[in-house]
Design goal:
Layout (H helix, E strand, L loop, with lengths): L1 H32 L12 H83 L2 H10 L5 H95 L3 H12 L32 H6 L9 H11 L21 H38 L10 H41 L21 H4 L34 E5 L18 E6 L6 E5 L5 E5 L3 E5 L11
Antiparallel strand pairs: 1-2, 1-5, 2-3, 3-4
Helix pairs in contact: 1-2, 2-4, 3-4, 8-9
Subcellular location: Cell membrane; Cytoplasm, Cell cortex; Cytoplasm, Cytoskeleton
Family: Belongs to the FNBP1 family.
Pfam families: FCH, HR1_TOCA, SH3_1
Length: 551
C-alpha cells in the first residue's frame, strides 16, 4: 500500500511539472508577442488593442495554471510524501512490536524447554542407579560391621537427593510449561491480533488519505475554473470589441495630409498656331485676330511637364518620391501631419517647462529654509542651480513660442482653405504646391526656405498660454505705474514684445505677472515690454491707482 501511495505521489509530481512548464511557456509566449513599449508605441487600433487584451488574459490564465501546480505541490504531493514517511515510521513501529512479542514467546519456550530437559535428565539419572533395591537389601540383612552402616547411610542420602532433584525438576518443568502456555495464548490471542489490527487501521487510513488527495487533486482544478472562465470571457469580449470602422477612422486621421485635390487641367488647343491653307481646307475656323486676342501667341505650357505631374504625385499606387529632409518646423510634412507634430512638440515642451518650474520652486523653498536656518546649508550654493533652471525655462519658453508661431501659421492656412471651400465648392484651385499624397511642388526649396515672421507675443491673459505676449503696445492711454523692480540678471529681449534689461537696472512695473511667468515693465526712456518675472525683484505700490492683482 505504501508503494502504491508513493507511485501516486510520483504521478502528481510529474503532473504539476507539466502544469509549471505549460504556464512558463504561456508566459514566454505572451512576453514574446507583447514586449514593453514606449508611450509613443502604444497601440490605437481596436484589433491591436483586442489582441493585447487577449494576451493579458492569456497571461492571467498562465497564472492560474501556476496556481494549480502550486496547489498540487503543497496540498497533494507534499501531503502524500509527508504521510508516506509517517506510514513507514508507524509500520516500522508495529513490526518491532511483533518482533518483540515473538522474541518474548521464544524466550518462554526456551525456558520451558530447558526445564523439560532438566526434568528428563534427572529422571534418567535416577533410573541408572538402583538405589531403591539396594536400600531394601540392606534393610533386610542385618550386617554387623560398621562400614555397612555407613554405606547404607550414604545410599539413603544419595537416593533422597536424587529423588528431591527429580521432584524439583518436575515442579520447575510444570511451572515453565504453565507459563509458556499462558504466554503463548496471550501472544496468539492478544499481542499478534492487536498488531495486525494496528496494521489494518494504518492501511485503512492510507486508503482514506488517497481518496482525500484524489479529491484535492480535482479541487485544485475546480478552484481556478471561475477565474479561467473570466479569462475566456475577457478574450471573447476583446474579440467583440474589434471595430473595423473605428480602425479605418484612425488610419484616416493618422495619415490624412490636409492637402486639396489638384485642380482640373485646362484644355490646350495647339491648333490655334496652324495657318489656314486653301488647298487642304481649314483646320480652324477661328480668325487669326481672335486667336491672337485669345493669347494664341503667348507662351505655351509644357505638355510633357503637365501630363507627368499626376503620375509623380500619386505615389501611393506608383513610384514613391524621394523622402524630403526633416526640418525643424516640420514644413516637409503635409499640413495636417505638420499640425499634429507641432502640437505634440508643444505639449512635450510644456511638460518639460512645468518640470523646470517645479524644480525652481523647490530650489527657492530650499533657499528660504537655508536663509532661515544657516546651519542646514549655504543659500548661495543653490544660486547657480537656480540660475541654470531659469535659463532652461527661458529656452523652453522661447521654443514653445516659436513652435506656437508655426502652429498658428498652419492653422491659419487651413482655416483660409476652409473658407475658400465654403465660398465656392465647385471652384478648383490651380496647379499649386499641395497634393493629396504629401508632395509640395517641384521646387521644394521655395517653401523650406520661406522666412518665418515671428509675431509679437500676444498679451497674456487669464487661463491663456503662459508664453503669449501683446501684439501691440501702442495703446492710446499708457498704463499707470504700479511699482518698480530691479533686474537680478541681464536679459537680451531678443523676441519681439520683450524688453531687454541690464543687471541691476531699475524698471517701472505697469502690469503684474498673470501666472505666465512674464511681467510688463517700462524703462525710464519710455520703452515698454515683457521681462521674465524670475529675473527681477519686484516692489509693488499697493496705494497706486490702476494696480490690478490677478489670482
Amino acid at each position: 500500500g505504501i508503494d502504491f501511495l508513493e507511485r501516486y505521489a510520483k504521478f502528481v509530481k510529474e503532473r504539476l511539472e507539466i502544469e509549471q512548464n505549460y504556464a512558463k511557456q504561456l508566459r514566454s509566449l505572451v512576453k514574446k508577442y507583447c514586449p514593453k513599449r514606449s508611450k509613443d508605441e502604444e497601440p490605437r487600433f481596436t484589433s491591436c488593442l483586442s489582441f493585447y487584451s487577449i494576451l493579458n488574459e492569456l497571461n492571467d490564465y498562465a497564472g492560474q495554471r501556476e496556481l494549480v501546480a502550486e496547489e498540487m505541490a503543497h496540498r497533494v504531493y507534499g501531503e502524500l510524501m509527508k504521510y508516506s514517511q509517517d506510514l513507514k515510521a508507524e509500520r516500522k513501529h508495529h513490526l518491532q512490536e511483533g518482533r518483540k512479542a515473538q522474541q518474548y514467546l521464544d524466550q518462554c519456550w526456551k525456558q520451558m524447554d530447558n526445564s523439560t530437559k532438566k526434568f528428563e535428565r534427572e529422571c534418567r539419572r535416577g533410573r541408572e542407579v538402583p538405589l531403591r533395591s539396594l536400600f531394601e537389601r540392606l534393610d533386610n540383612e542385618h550386617s554387623t560391621s560398621s562400614p555397612n552402616a555407613d554405606v547404607e547411610k550414604d545410599a539413603k542420602n544419595q537416593f533422597y537427593a536424587r529423588t528431591h532433584a527429580a521432584d524439583e525438576s518436575k515442579n520447575e518443568y510444570a511451572s515453565q510449561l504453565q507459563n509458556f502456555n499462558a504466554e503463548q495464548w496471550k501472544h496468539f490471542n492478544n499481542a499478534i491480533p492487536h498488531i495486525f489490527k494496528n496494521l489494518q487501521a494504518m492501511d485503512e487510513r492510507r486508503t482514506v488519505k488517497l481518496g482525500e488527495t484524489y479529491q484535492s487533486f480535482a479541487e485544485a482544478e475546480r478552484r481556478v475554473i471561475p477565474i479561467v472562465s473570466k479569462c475566456l470571457e475577457g478574450m471573447t469580449a476583446a474579440a467583440k470589441a474589434v471595430d473595423e470602422r473605428r480602425d479605418s477612422a484612425i488610419v484616416v486621421e493618422s495619415f490624412k495630409s490636409g492637402f486639396e485635390p489638384p485642380g482640373d487641367y485646362p484644355f490646350e488647343d495647339f491648333s490655334q498656331n496652324l495657318s489656314r491653307t486653301g488647298s487642304d481646307g481649314t483646320i480652324s475656323n477661328t480668325p487669326k485676330g481672335e486667336r491672337e486676342k485669345d493669347g494664341g501667341t503667348g507662351p505655351r505650357p509644357d505638355p510633357k511637364h503637365n501630363m507627368s505631374r499626376p503620375k509623380n504625385k500619386l505615389w501611393l499606387f506608383g513610384k514613391k518620391p524621394k523622402k524630403a529632409p526633416s526640418l525643424e518646423d516640420f514644413s516637409h510634412l503635409p499640413p495636417e501631419q505638420r499640425r499634429k507634430r507641432l502640437q505634440q512638440r508643444i505639449d512635450e515642451l510644456h511638460k518639460e517647462l512645468q518640470k523646470e518650474m517645479d524644480q525652481r520652486d523647490a530650489l527657492n523653498k530650499m533657499k528660504d529654509v537655508y536663509e532661515k536656518n544657516p546651519q542646514m546649508g549655504d543659500p548661495s550654493s543653490l544660486q547657480p542651480k537656480i540660475s541654470e533652471t531659469i535659463c532652461n525655462m527661458e529656452k523652453l519658453r522661447s521654443e514653445i513660442h516659436k513652435n506656437e508661431t508655426w502652429l498658428t501659421e498652419v492653422e491659419g492656412k487651413q482655416s483660409s482653405r476652409d473658407r475658400r471651400h465654403s465660398a465656392d465648392n465647385h471652384q478648383r484651385p490651380p496647379q499649386g504646391r499641395e497634393s493629396p499624397e504629401g508632395s509640395y511642388t517641384d521646387d521644394t526649396s521655395q517653401e523650406q526656405h520661406t522666412p518665418r515672421h515671428h509675431a509679437r507675443p500676444p498679451q497674456p491673459h487669464r487661463n491663456s498660454d503662459p508664453h503669449e505676449f501683446d501684439d501691440e503696445f501702442d495703446d492710446d492711454d499708457p498704463l499707470p505705474v504700479i511699482g518698480h523692480c530691479k533686474a537680478l540678471y541681464g536679459f537680451d529681449g531678443e523676441n519681439e514684445g520683450t524688453l531687454s534689461m541690464a543687471e541691476d537696472e531699475v524698471l517701472y512695473i505697469i502690469e503684474e505677472d498673470k501666472g505666465d511667468g512674464w511681467t510688463r515693465a517700462r524703462k525710464q526712456t519710455g520703452e515698454e515690454g515683457y521681462v521674465p518675472t524670475s529675473y527681477v525683484d519686484i516692489t509693488l505700490e499697493k496705494s497706486s491707482k490702476g494696480a490690478v492683482t490677478y489670482i
